[in-house]
TrEMBL record:
Belongs to the diacylglycerol acyltransferase family. Pfam families: DAGAT. PANTHER family: 2-ACYLGLYCEROL O-ACYLTRANSFERASE 2 (PTHR12317:SF74), DIACYLGLYCEROL O-ACYLTRANSFERASE (PTHR12317). This is MOGT2 acyltransferase. It comes from the Eukaryota. Its main location: endoplasmic reticulum. GO terms for cellular component: endoplasmic reticulum membrane. It is found in: Endoplasmic reticulum membrane. Keywords: Acyltransferase, Endoplasmic reticulum, Lipid biosynthesis, Lipid metabolism, Membrane, Transferase, Transmembrane, Transmembrane helix. It comes from Indicator maculatus. The keyword Aminoacyl-tRNA synthetase does not apply. It is a multi-pass membrane protein.
Amino acid sequence: VQLVKTADLDPRKNYLIGFHPHGVLAVGAFLSFCTEASGFPTLFPGITPHLLMLSLWFRIPFFRDYLMSGGLVSSEKESASYVLRKPEGGNALAIIVGGAQEALDAHPGSYTLLLRKRKGFIRLAIQHG
């Protein structure tokens, strides 16, 4: 996984980042935003990355706390909004645009991006500037 810096990010603002492809287990997104494997902290100092994850995983006692300790956030709109509206800024919320449905279409050598019915993240970005 290699992140490429295309612009400096102001640590006083919050950001919504789209990630593609989902893949079978979203390993690329996890490594990029929940570990230091991709060099995210070096590329974007002062920005704390968070990754949205299917909300059903947050219903399991103790596992929820484990997920949150790794920077994962429930994919419910309220949870995403909570991260994006923090007034002090310094947060990057990553969303795997195609979601779980895109994961089911993951096949070696093909990249299927599902966007037709997945535009809520754009509304969320506009609402939170």
